[in-house]
Amino acid sequence: MEGVKRARVFGLDLVRAAAGILTLSVHFFLNSGFYNTPASGESMLLACMVRMLCMTCVPLFLLLTGYTCVGREWSKGYYRKLVPVLLSYVLAGAACVAFRYFWLGERWGLGTVAQMFSSCQAAPYGWYIEMYIGLFLLSPFLNAAWHSLGDGGKKALVLTLLGLTAVPTLANQRWELLPDWWVGMYPLTYYALGAWLRERPVKMKGWKLLLCWLAVAAVFGVKGYLRAAGGNYILAADDDWGSFALTLESVCLFSCLRKAEGTGLPAPVRWCVGRVAKLALPMYLTSYIADQLIYPVLNRAVAQAQLRLFWMPVAVPAVVVCSLMLAQLVDWAAQALMGLIPTKTKNTADRGITR
Fold first, then answer.
1. How far is it, in rounded angstroms, from Cα 244 to Cα 201?
2. pLDDT for residue 334
């Protein structure tokens, strides 16, 4: 119900936390020289498979948004719920701009800085905000269409969206067999899938779903390794966020994590999962700063890019911890600013990625 604070669900927190950590993990490959290193040898084969595992990050966030936000309805006050997201972006963007100016020595005029904020580029990883804002604006209307359909209509919608976005990435491997104009509309597919999974959860056991996630990532990781043929990794349809491979992976991992109840876990572990989940958005947005501090050190210390993968268990947790500390500062500042806004503009309803 709108305006009523909802109890946190451990399974959803686990999905959100995993998505945030996987996002920072996939940035390891962006910052460690993976894409400029010949895909040759066992370490690079392993890297290709691990990368495909981590690429599940954005699809998880989108599935979660559809799952948690399918009940939203349009109202005059609906757009106020976007304020906390925008505050997190502005504050994280300000931190990134300050870091780039004072630490990296980049220089811009005030007009350029204003343009960076308005185009969601103040935080270099801010493209997700740009996409999420559009999905937020559309969601009440998407929900109205969704709830107007019966079970058959909902199934037909999901299959249609999959046919427009995911299937072409599988079919058009060597030749363009299917039109692919709609492939870039994958956020709508994941949103609908999330809504579908809320009503029709996957009944397969968690360990089987986890095994499927690993198996699909391994198969398409090997495929990417072979596609490179000893040269640099080649981005292809399999690597697109809406690809068939990542759609299948994300549904498996989402369904697995969503089942978790956490009842047997120690209270500190549950608290940590909840905290990472709550800070997922600012953690992601501020992770650029930690990336620029940690990965140059790693790259200088380990000259061979093929060997840097084995330092991933050290580098990624370091980035996560640093980003969480920055995210906490952003969250405190955002809460303080929200406290200055009249009560009627506050809303504690589910905000998908940010809760």
1. 19
2. 96
